[in-house]
Amino acid sequence: xxxxxxxxxxxxxxxxxxxxxxxxxxxxxxxxxxxxxxxxxxxxxxxxxxxxxxxxxxxxxxxxxxxxxxxxxxxxxxxxxxxxxxxxxxxxxxxxxxxxxxxxxxxxxxxxxxxxxxxxxxxxxxxxxxxxxxxxxxxxxxxxxxxxxxxxxxxxxxxxxxxxxxxxxxxxxxxxxxxxxxxxxxxxxxxxxxxxxxxxxxxxxxxxxxxxxxxxxxxxxxxxxxxxxxxxxxxxxxxxxxxxxxxxxxxxxxxxxxxxxxxxxxxxxxxxxxxxxxxxxxxxxxxxxxxxxxxxxxxxxxxxxxxxxxxxxxxxxxxxxxxxxxxxxxxxxxxxx
Length: 337
Ligand SMILES: NC(=O)c1ccc[n+]([C@@H]2O[C@H](COP(=O)([O-])OP(=O)(O)OC[C@H]3O[C@@H](n4cnc5c(N)ncnc54)[C@H](O)[C@@H]3O)[C@@H](O)[C@H]2O)c1
What we know:
The protein is α/β, with parallel strands linked by helices. The protein has two domains: 122 residues, Rossmann fold (3-Layer(aba) Sandwich), CATH 3.40.50; 181 residues, Dihydrodipicolinate Reductase, domain 2. Helix content is 36%, strand content 29%. The protein is built from nine helices and 15 strands. The strands form two sheets. A nine-stranded mixed β-sheet has the order 14-13-12-11-7-10-9-8-15. β1, α1 and β2 form a beta-alpha-beta unit. α6 packs parallel to α7. It is globular, with a radius of gyration of 20 Å. The model has no long low-confidence stretch (mean pLDDT 95). Bound molecules: nicotinamide-adenine-dinucleotide (NAD). The site of nicotinamide-adenine-dinucleotide has 25 residues, from α1 and α4.
């Protein structure tokens, strides 16, 4: 049997524990070696629940003591960059949750650390693994809607709390869900961001962004319209229109659950979709996307191949978010170089 991948977890919170640990714990090719959280109770409970051999209060101790092949980082946004670089310096490959840093400058610092250490980072843009989005991407790439002209996308959350509502910690829906949305657009269109014009509402009490709308010009003369808000619930919809059809994926949700990602397509060039057609993905649980993204990352670490979602992808997303913030502040469009 080949050697198991020794994995450490930094950040035993909601995403790290409830979402990322279950698929890792059921992967026989992985050894859950150690976990770290500044909250001692969380670190201990996580170790007990998932069988991590050792819990740590200080992740630096964990990185110095354990011989880890790979590290999962799931921290508040303001803490992501430093932990990723520390893990790379310790010789580990890294899975970091989105958006990987507070801004593009932080993403570029991580890229520099990748070059220095020779270790690679993947970024948790999990929606690339949602079955509906995979179907959508495949049909677009196959030419089913012709040449892409426009994208319309919207994503929301319920009002964010704790660090997620603190501007200094990287809170607010633009980073929380706008990052996912922007990654989806860049991935679906395979285009480069060119210019952003943004509008933003800020929460009176905290100053954190409350809702953001921006237009995004992409290479190839593609125009995208993007909206995210923390007052609209679990909205998640993306529609791509081309000169030979259109395709749309939308989470059909019930209360706070996300049961399905429904895809609707109309095509003038693919006879199978010459009438608007709904495609229902096979697996109803959205958690399947996390299983797939972690399996893809683990395989890339074991095979020493390129990470499935790279830091360059994350850097481009953050360039767009930075530009939306700056444009909303100045009232002027912002060019992305
Ligand atoms: N991809 C997705 O679908 C998705 C969904 C939710 C959250 N996330 C991402 O996951 C990340 C974490 O979000 P969350 O909701 O789990 O937050 P959380 O607050 O629930 O968990 C963060 C944990 O980090 C710990 N922590 C904070 N600073 C630390 C430090 N310096 N060292 C060690 N531990 C520290 C906290 O005690 C907490 O347990 C964020 O990047 C977020 O955007 C992704």
